[in-house]
Amino acid sequence: MKDLLIIDGYNFIFNFSKAGLPDSKDLEYLRDQLISDIAAYNSQKDYDAVVVFDASKSSSQTRSSEIINNIKVIYSRSGETADTIIEELVSGWSAHRKIIVVTSDYSQQKAVFGKNTIRKSCREFGLELNSVIDDMRRMLSKNNREKRKFFYSIEKRLDADILKKIAHYRKR
Fold first, then answer.
1. pLDDT digits (tens, 9 = 90+) for 81-137
2. Side by side, which strands form the sheet with 71-75?
3. Domain coordinates in residue numbering, the chain
4. Nearest of 112, 131, 116, 115 to residue 52 by alpha carbon
5. pTM
6. Residue 34: CB partners within 8 Å, gap ≥ 6?
7. 40 burial class (0-12, 13-18, 19+ CB within 10 angstroms)?
8. Could you give the CA distance from residue 22 to residue 10 in angstroms, rounded to a whole number?
9. Residues near 108 by Cβ (< 8 Å), separated by ≥ 6?
10. CB-CB contact of 102 with 8 (8 Å)
11. CA–CA distance, 49 with 26 (Å, rounded to integer)
12. Residues 130, 159: Cα–Cα separation, whole Å
């Protein structure tokens, strides 16, 4: 069974990205960006990843969840905090697998501390996340440079007589 990575979504956004208090469009962008970054990170680390967002001020009476790029995204119901969901996930899974909880909320860190549970601050995880993404970019850039070395256009691969015939047909 894979290790479980749980991220307190808004806690991470507000603590690591220094987002301040964005409007709803910016917040949606920051949520999407976080999920995208976690998916890229997870492609290298291979966790079961869960991102939990507070929707405690919404009018929704039920929790909602969805899978985006193999990341489970959970939104709390009205009056419920992400901390509550994280504590439930940890208590339900800690006996069966290693869990990493990403939050800078000190009381949350204390609440989830226990058997098989590792706590990471938003800063610590953010630096690791950026490092993994930067490594991926460098690797892709290197691969692209190497591919260009071996790429020969069709003009370079065809015989001179064939090129003359093609040029002749183009003129028609």
1. 888 899 889 888 877 789 999 988 766 656 666 678 888 999 999 999 999 999 998
2. 64-68, 71-75, 48-53, 4-8, 99-102, 117-120
3. 4-133
4. 112
5. 0.76
6. 7, 9, 12, 13, 51
7. middle
8. 11
9. 8, 11, 83, 86, 87, 101
10. yes
11. 23
12. 48
Residue 76 and residue 54 in contact, taking contact as beta carbons nearer than 8 Å: yes
Options 3.40.50, 1.10.287, 3.40.190, 1.10.3470; CATH for 4-133 is: 3.40.50
Long-range contact set of residues 31-36: C-beta below 8 Å, sequence gap at least 24: 34/7, 34/9, 35/68, 35/69, 35/71, 35/73, 36/69
Q: CB within 8 A of 117, min separation 6: which ones? A: 90, 94, 98, 99, 100, 101
| 7-49 pLDDT tens trace | 999 999 988 876 566 666 788 888 999 999 999 999 999 899 9
